[in-house]
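Handover notes (outgoing to incoming on-call)

Open items:
1. DUF4295 domain-containing protein: sequence verified, structure written out, both below. Nothing else pending on this one.
2. Nothing else urgent.
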Amino acid sequence: MAKKTVATLQTASKRLTKAIKMVKSPKTGAYTFQEAIMSPEDVDNFLKKK
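DUF4295 domain-containing protein structure tokens:
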């Protein structure tokens, strides 16, 4: 189960997106958050990766 949050960040020259997904650890069962700042085109690939 992954929860996803996407926020759009705009700078002077580039348009960037901050993506946050919640991932369940297979070892402990606890949830952790993974954050990344990337271009909007790469968000779907980031959210699909495990």
